[in-house]
Amino acid sequence: MLRIMRNKLDAPVFTSPFLKPAGLALRSYSSSAKQMTVREALNSALDEEMSADHNVFLMGEEVGEYQGAYKVSKGLLQKFGPERVVDTPITEAGFTGIGVGAAFYGLRPVVEFMTFNFAMQAIDHIINSAAKTNYMSAGNINVPIVFRGPNGAAAGVGAQHSQCYAAWYGSCPGLKVLIPYSSEDARGLLKAAIRDPDPVVFLENELLYGEAFPVSAEVLDSRFCIPIGKAKIEREGKHVTITAFSKMVGFSLKAAETLAKDGIDAEVINLRSIRPLDRPTINASVRKTNRLVTVEEGFPQHGVGAEICASIVEDSFGYLDSPVERIAGADVPMPYAANLERMALPQVEDIISLENILKDVDENQGAPTSNEDQTPMMPLGVESNLGDAFHETETWQLNGASGLQVWEEVFW
Amino acid sequence: MACSATAQIIQPLSINSARSVDNSDACAKILNPSSFLVSTPRINKKLFSVNKSISPFARRSATVFAVSSDVVKEKKLKSNSSLSNLLITKEEGLELYEDMYLGRAFEDMCAQMYYRGKMFGFVHLYNGQEAVSTGFIKLLKKEDCVVSTYRDHVHSLSKGVPAREVMGELFGKTTGCCRGQGGSMHMFSKEHNVLGGFAFIGEGIPVATGAAFTSKYKREVLKEDCDEVTLAFFGDGTCNNGQFFECLNMAALWKLPIVFVVENNLWAIGMSHLRATSDPQIWKKGPAFGMPGVHVDGMDVLKVREVAKEAIGRARRGEGPTLVECETYRFRGHSLADPDELRDPAEKAHYATRDPITALKKYMAENKLAAEAELKVIEKKIDELVEDAVEFADKSPVPARSQLLENVFADPRGFGIGPDGKYRCEDPKFTQGTAHV
């Protein structure tokens, strides 16, 4: 999903990134690193929160005797018993509603969905009974519930098991939507979510469950929790801001390392919280770097990247040196074939190649290009070094020629 | 699932004999009275003997039976017995009468206000079904929960939400029970444990099941002394919805303290129950999931009350859920916007003769429980109450502009709770941006 970078006419002088020493921003960890997988992080968070507060209980399919469909709730049944780790029948609408009702009346349920695709059967309860109730009852009844489960694509599971719901839930007032990447994120955000008095949609990722990350002693403390609504800058940089969440953070970090060798210093922001979205952090970053690329796994239309782009345009338009770029999954239901699946999801190479294009633009400063391709709303053929197979989906220009003219009028 | 407690139920009226089957002509062939007997052979362990009523099946065709005379006749037979055999005491009778009359007067006032433009949006009125609400909810404690549908004004009133607050909510004023943010269809009250008010049919059933789950959890895990019961009210149309069956299953599976009350008024907007349902006898769906299914005449508050006593008692004792089908009727359309053209006027006329308020009035008069004058006093009091509610709501202010963005979250700024257990936004270091993230 790449766009052609339009050359700016009479662009202001831009210091070439080649003149700056290429440096890798070091990731800093608090102290000696203990490795913990995301699965262990989630399990320990659930364990500690259920021990601390007896109103917390876990409900879902296979969470008990099966030890969790992805083994996230391993050992919890043995520790807390079947009344607190409840195996449900396959009735998403029913048991989600039961969780919401229990939350209305005083308990703190954690409802697990085997994947968020199945949560669509229960989405009426997530939105209509959980998200809207505090508002509809004017604060009378709050809903301290957590809906958690894997979200987004796994490996070869097909169209009905691979959708990313960050954008859907992120558009609903009354919900908090959290999406961790590392073990530290997983632990801190899940603990924050369980303690939170409002409905939280907690989107995990199946492929990250087994990945190990270093965690500091502070993370392992039982009181540890991360604020909701605050993004984390995983890697500081100067030339371009990349926002990402979940698995894409890992890809963005890898891309940033490769780009650093070419002298492009990318700042990677791990969003952590889709709703409330940390607009101040993103805006501050863009005002520093002047370029923004949003990366997500979900469908492009009305996606998280679209919201971030709109937010930046509204708040930091003058600071942008080039239009915001979105990298998203292909605009198709997820195919099954492994090579097609790989093409349908953003890969590290896509992020790298986009930055290279940005770099190319900067190098060609002052050379006006013809504007024949600027008819609004026309599909563009996309130039890239990845080959045609990746770009079968059409790309639409975000700004038509009229947009460019307005920009010129304002700035020159 | 052997239950040792035998249900003692007083058979108020042995109507089986009195109501002759022959009158049901064509209907008898389709649904013979024996189908309304004890819910199922499996559950027929005498733990719950069913109070039956054979309804005149004015459903299949336009043939209508004037049954009220039967009903009243039965009650007349009763009046010969001594007072101790009556179902209700005088106080209870007056309480029931007052509650039903409040429901009726309130709903009639809503209609008036709607046509005057004071109320707007979707308003669904409960006229005719008061016996169900009063019969069940007047047996509850304050801690018990009620979950309803969009036809929830009277459920809220019966549960104890003041008429002023309900009227204020309907007018969209800030003095309403939800500060005007919920509306007719979303009545919530934490104090009186009214857990809504849901626009989607079937949505309230899992929520009610969840509240019942909480009661059981409190009792078994938190070891609190909790025997709270939840009532879920919903209609005949909902009984075809998947969530209904999911919850019957889970409630029976986990023996939750809940009573599923079906207000079968035969019509879902313009869709007749018989056109929508493969087996119209809803009470039968209970035994399929392992709980008793009971059918009762929902136009008779005393019968409803007897059945309710039994069902709520079962739930309180931890014996599990019950499905109660109340055969009732709504005198008005589905909502105030519904022209109500599809229902047969003869059917409406028939049920009008079975008005629950008039029936109770007659019962009380015949059994010398209350004089006409006493009832008139109550009626006057209620009329004044409703007038006062309207005046109050009329004078109340509309919500301030600042109210628009309030109450989206319980957490004031959305940053969650910190490690010290307090809201992070209250921590001055956090809001200054200096706190370590």
Please give a structural write-up.
The complex is a heterodimer of chains A (412) and B (437). With 412 residues, chain A is an alpha/beta fold. In chain A, 34% of the residues lie in helices and 15% in strands. Chain A is built from 14 helices and 16 strands. Chain A has helices spanning 38-52, 76-80, 92-104, 123-131, 133-136, 166-170, 183-195, 217-220, 247-261, 279-289, 304-316, 338-344, 348-363, 401-411; strands at 34-37, 56-60, 85-87, 108-112, 146-150, 176-178, 200-204, 212-215, 232-235, 240-244, 266-270, 273-275, 292-295, 325-327, 379-380, 395-396. In chain A, helix 7 (183-195) links the parallel strand 6 (176-178) and strand 7 (200-204). In chain A, helix 3 runs parallel beside helix 4 (123-131), helix 9 (247-261) crosses helix 13 and helix 10 crosses helix 11. Residues 1-29 and 365-412 of chain A have low confidence and may be disordered. With 437 residues, chain B is of the alpha/beta class. In chain B, strands 1-4-5-9-8 form a five-stranded parallel β-sheet, sandwiched between helices. In chain B, strands 2-3 form a two-stranded antiparallel ribbon. Chain B has a two-stranded antiparallel sheet with strand order 6-7. In chain B, a hairpin with a 2-residue loop joins strand 6 (267-268) and strand 7. Chains A and B meet through helix 3, helix 4, helix 5 and helix 7 of A and strand 2, helix 8 and helix 9 of B. Chain B: It comes from Fraxinus pennsylvanica. Chain B: Tetramer of 2 alpha and 2 beta subunits. Chain B: Residues 368-395 form a coiled coil. Chain B: GO terms for molecular function: pyruvate dehydrogenase (acetyl-transferring) activity. Chain B: Its EC number is 1.2.4.1. Chain A: InterPro entries: PDHB_mito-type, THDP-binding, Transketo_C/PFOR_II, Transketolase-like_Pyr-bd, Transketolase_C.
